[in-house]
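During the second year of the project, the team shifted from modelling isolated chains to modelling whole assemblies. The rationale, set out in the original proposal, was that interfaces cannot be judged from single-chain predictions alone. As a representative example for this report, we include one of the complexes processed in the last quarter. Its constituent sequences, exactly as entered into the pipeline, are reproduced here:
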Amino acid sequence: QGGSTVSITVVGASGDLAKKKIFPALFALFYEGCLPEHFAVFGYARSKMSDEELRTMISRTLTCRIDKRENCGDKMEHFLQRCFYQSGQYNSEEEFAELDRKLKEKEAGRVPNRLFYLSIPPNIFVDVVRSASRTASSSGGWTRFIVEKPFGRDSESSGELTRSLKKHLAEEQIFRIDHYLGKELVENLSVLRFSNLVFEPLWSRNYIRNVQLIFSEDFGTDGRGGYFDNYGIIRDIMQNHLLQILALFAMETPVSLDAEDIRNEKVKVLRSMRQLKLEDVVVGQYKGHVKGGKSYPGYADDPTVPKGSITPTFAAAALFIDNARWDGVPFLMKAGKALHTRRAEIRVQFRSVPGNLYRRNIGSSDLDQATNELVLRVQPDEAIYLKINNKVPGLGMRLDRSNLNLLYSERYPREIPDAYERLLLDAIAGERRLFIRSDELDAAWAIFTPVLRQLEDKRVAPELYPYGSRGPVGAHYLAANYNVRWGDIS
Ligand code: BG6
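Output from the structure prediction step:
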């Protein structure tokens, strides 16, 4: 027959991530005609299920992403017919051998390429990789593994995980996923910087006062407390999602768009960062709150959370990059669950205009409040806007701050692909640009590990904040220490 084939095995197929994100993303790729002609999708998990039962389970979360186009039902049926299931323990070589047998059946004479998506807890990564890589090693095509965070809990455990994985795999086979890197606005960050003359020359301490990376969710851990309590918000969001954005924001111009060139620059900037200090961190935890007659449970009320837990569900931090471009510029991060809104954004606050001719005409008495601010709203309602001072039309001379506004829903009405679609497609294509290399991971942990240890050793009590609020006031004091106001509170 000849030609090649790709199989995608989702290990942990009955988990939430697989159902909500991975299978729907695979279907969306199929729907768009982005998957290779010969492909098969396998689910692997402990529960006993037939192929048909897997298909029924998957079909509940598949949607036709782009309106209700014709043929969607047919395409779904075609996709489901290419989905298969193998049940097994994660450390069972026999059951992986059985999977291998089924994979070979589908590969039938073609060059076999295998992608394994490990949507499972990290303590079983190595078992799975050992069995799966053994069965695949004789196959001729490529074998790749997508791994989901958490990649350890600190520098030490992350290093250990990397070493164990590398006993079975080459670095090129490991695709460490951070789904924030697959988000449209995050991808656009480099485009904005490096292909518009008006931004890059301003991208330094000379013009930028501070940078803010803000993540908030308007829901709590909702039964995910068992996982979350072991990690907390700093490990869940800051050390990965927000730090990755920061690295892309602050890195020097890469030699090219090649994955290694980009990742080299990210590592450099991460390694130029100071270790985070305890006095530059504020932690919080949400407590129960009654609003509009409805009662919202606190983190400690989550039955999956151990009694007396001090795990932070909110954190704010001030980070610094000790290099020529960013010396002295605070990079403020804020991340929290159960806050008043769901939002992820990057805010860049520029310095004030020296000797501003119009200082008397600016409404606010505080000139610092009238500086330019560039906002990249990653979600929801993707947008890029720039706050500028503008003359209020009329006979007088009054200035106010207005937005130059690029709203994606208006400019690009087509729906934006989910981050997992782009990342899966890249992993199939062998494009590593949006995946985390092991030295990047080491550099990221080096920034946060000491403070995480101190928070735990000293049992620093989190400041309680009501569910649905704007989070602990400590975050404002932290920002004020650096003469900064959070841009999302205006
Ligand atoms: C995950 C975190 O990585 O990202 C979750 O573990 C969080 O706690 C999620 O809810 C947020 O992702 P998104 O794409 O919904 O903003």
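DSSP finds 14 helices and 18 strands in the chain. Residues 179, 217, 236, 344 surround 6-O-phosphono-beta-D-glucopyranose (CB under 6 Å).
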